[in-house]
Amino acid sequence: MRDDERFEAEIQIVGRVQGVGFRPFIYRKAVGNGLRGHVINLGDAGVEVVVEGTTTQIRAFIDEVKTDAPEVSEVENVQVVYLPFRNRFRDFKIERSKNSERASSGTLPPDIAICRECVEDMSDPSSRWYDYPFTACAWCGPRFTAARSLPYDRERTHMAKFPMCKHCGAEFRDPTDRRFDAQGITCSLCGPKMTLHDASGSELHVPDVFERAAELLVKGKVIAIKGIGGVHIAAIATDDDVIMDLRRRKRRPQQPFALMSPDLDAITSYASPSAEEQSVIKSWQRPIVLLKRKQSSEISDLVAPGLDRVGVMLPYTGIHVVLFKRLRGPALIMTSGNKPGLPMAITNEDAVRDLGGIADYFLLHDRDIMNRCDDSVLRVIRGQKAFVRRSRGYVPDPIELPFKKGLSLAVGAELRNAGAIAYDGRCYMTQYLGDITNLESLEYERGALEHLKVLSNITRNPDVIGCDLHPDYMTSHLADEISRETNAPVIKSQHHHAHINAVSAENNIPPDEAVIGIALDGAGYGSDGAIWGGEVIKSTYSSFERVGHLEYLPMPGGDLCTIYPLRMLIAALSKTISDDEIRDITQNHVEKGLPNREKELELILKQSRDRKTIKTSSCGRYLDAIAALTGVCYVRTYEGEPAMKTESIAQNEVIKTHLEIEDINGQYMLKISNILLDMCSLVKEKKIERIAAVGQNYLVNGITEIAIRSAEKDEIKTIALSGGVFVNEFISTRIIDILSNEGFEVIRHKSVPPGDGCIALGQSIAALSSVT
């Protein structure tokens, strides 16, 4: 093709290209290169561009599309077909969206934090957006929580019931304006409104609801604030009495509260974020990031009792911006507005009904929330994000899969769950769903999966359904229900195989390549009927072999061991010493660690020596035993509490210990009962920081030794890390360092949590591997 030869070019652009100001960007680039034609959103979340011009003009345009795209967009693929020049366009236009029956080739963007330009508009007294809490443009605002279906146009969002005023309408139609085709465009003349209500739900008519809300917060009142993905509970973060009262109301005695601060300067007054952590905090996703706390600050120690980190986020909506403008102080508690065990409230009626015993006042608005979505939570470990939960700001971005075949639906595990739909080489995860332990949460998951299908334009039934091997999970029953409705077979995945499948898929491990996986967590139903959780497996996507694990310990009382960590310490000691010696060692712990004290101790001793008592190789239960021995946690009030508090106190040093690794029927076993007994001697020296370090270092050294032996035996060079324990920085960094120094490629999770929030991804891979 000659440079001056004229063509018509049909261009298909795939990626995060809807709802991010992409069409106005295309318009400016096309006009700037002297091209004529049009751009249109497709119903599959992609963008189609048709242009007429010379070869030079078209190529320059395509290069600029690839290199200069808006920050929040993500161009994954550009396909160009050159056709004969027909001279059928007079100018370049942005056309209305076009429906498509194809499954999604593009991505509806996640919710995008309010941009700098919109904040500036809100600061201008002469602007229609002055202090207007719903200010947004084509570059920012709700997306996932706003959309009912695709294409992403106003009539299919929560803005459908708010007709634009003449000013917004003019900007909406002006391709040179920042708010051109911004489906969330609105202003104080035509948009949603905030209202303040008392505890009964009656509206308070005050001149400035934000000013009044700020006054109430300073006075120690608790306010439920409706945002973009749900309702938050807000309270002042500097008053011990207020926080104690909030904990009583929420029935949340120890679980840490998340904080929101107005800016980075406020955050650095009480926390010490690294440069990498600051970058994540300020990103357009605006997640909650777990930061090292400073030893003294205005922030109450009761925000995160017994922990050395606190979860912090910056404002991500105009609602937060206006509130903090009127509020003095470094931070507000901003925690999910829900009853224990239930999803977060998203309607005004649900907020008043469900949170009436928690909140004193309600700051609400009249715009619908189409999709409930909690805040994302993560920490940065060795320069890489480690998600605790993946939700707002990251969902529904897909994870690319290493092969393209079939359509699967996966329901995940039970705790801290997310579901998934995988199609055509991509896996779409739902938002964080929480614990699926009751009918309300189960219906939440079913609805979230259905909505993912709608946003992906998937209309047919799945080829296969993935679920956990555990027969009693409610999610497993959901999988069976969907199977009966769709006639799709159910593929049950062993929990830890799903973990390793997930991290392997994220890192694009080929389908026929084996990895050695280290899976460390609290519990997973094992192939032998025991409770696993400290596993080394040789894994491909379709199968696995268990090559090593932690020593089996009895679980006297079953799940009671997950609530009372002292039970696990007693159980472990029962494998090495007599009952009298255990009574002597635990005498100072029994009163705090067992509700029924000596009577309960005797029952635990008896059950620990009963061969019928269920056994576990769980890393979580091992860490629980250390938490009890150190006295940092006797009663688990939230998931992961004993391990988190153990990590917080551990002295930062590498400690060498003698490893006990046995080969039992071809499987390596790391004994842990003897090291727990050895650590008991340190209690008398009151060196709990050293106990925490010794115990965790022993785990690190032992599990990596098993992984190295297994990898060398089978000449495998890649070791995959997964499981909730890998949000523990103390353990994670040491495992990474040891394996890397031995020359192995260590792969970690990048886009989903290492905890059970990744399980549906792993189940999807296993299920699709079964599709012929």
Q: Tags for this entry?
A:
772 residues, alpha/beta, Alpha-Beta Plaits, DHBP synthase, 5 domains, eleven-stranded mixed β-sheet, seven-stranded mixed β-sheet, 31 strands, 20% strand
Describe the structure.
The protein has 24 helices and 31 strands. It has 772 residues and is of the alpha/beta class. The chain folds into 5 domains: 6-94, 2-Layer Sandwich (Alpha-Beta Plaits); 108-191, Alpha-Beta Complex (DHBP synthase), CATH 3.90.870.30; 194-365, DHBP synthase, CATH 3.90.870.10; 398-505 and 756-769, 2-Layer Sandwich (Nucleotidyltransferase, domain 5); 520-747, Nucleotidyltransferase, domain 5. The longest helix has 26 residues, at 688-713. It is globular, with a radius of gyration of 28 Å.
Secondary-structure topology with pairs:
Blueprint (H helix, E strand, L loop, with lengths): L5 E11 L5 H11 L3 E6 L5 E8 H13 L6 E11 L7 E3 L21 H7 L43 H7 L21 E4 L5 E2 L4 H10 L4 E4 L4 E6 L3 H11 L8 E2 L3 H4 L7 H8 L5 E5 L16 E5 L4 H8 L6 E5 L11 H8 L5 E5 L11 E5 L2 E6 L9 E2 L6 E4 L9 E4 L2 E4 L9 H17 L8 E5 L5 H13 L3 E4 L1 H12 L8 E11 L5 E9 L4 E7 L2 E2 L5 H4 L2 H8 L5 H8 L3 H4 L3 H12 L6 E2 L2 H12 L10 H9 L11 E4 L2 E4 L2 H11 L4 H26 L4 E5 L6 H13 L3 E3 L11 H11 L3
Parallel strand pairs: 2-5, 8-14, 10-12, 11-15, 18-21, 21-22, 23-30, 25-29, 30-31
Antiparallel strand pairs: 1-3, 1-4, 2-3, 6-7, 6-14, 8-9, 9-13, 10-13, 11-12, 15-16, 17-20, 18-19, 19-20, 23-24, 24-25, 26-27, 28-29
